[in-house]
């Protein structure tokens, strides 16, 4: 019986920690935050190129998107475990965990939106950020190929 429970748990992990969960949801969550925060349209192309200006509206947008993706918490920063599960097949925890932890720590600030923004930009400038960009770009291409813009 324990073996069956373990197998069921093991088989359910991909559903819980889907391979591309963060990047798959990025566009829909991004759009929600774009509308919710009334972000000016001029930022769309910048965000599409992973360029995030150090401006208050951008801080709020990044905070909104990462909160919507459930990878950000105002008490502890980025959810290291969830991000690790996203990219565990690309690097081991000895490489990835210090990257995310360092970005969380070095960016910590009383202003939660600014902290989130700085930690996000910090992560984007690492291997983890590169993997995220690659996944999002693949998803974008798939959406365009399927007729979604």
Automatic annotation (TrEMBL):
Entry GO terms, CC: extracellular space
Entry-linked CDD domains: PBP_GOBP
Record-linked InterPro entries: PBP/GOBP (IPR006170), PBP_GOBP_sf (IPR036728)
Tagged with keyword Lipoprotein: no
Molecular function terms, GO-annotated: odorant binding
Residues in the signal sequence: 1-18
Protein name, as recorded: Uncharacterized protein
Higher taxonomy: Eukaryota, Metazoa, Ecdysozoa, Arthropoda, Hexapoda
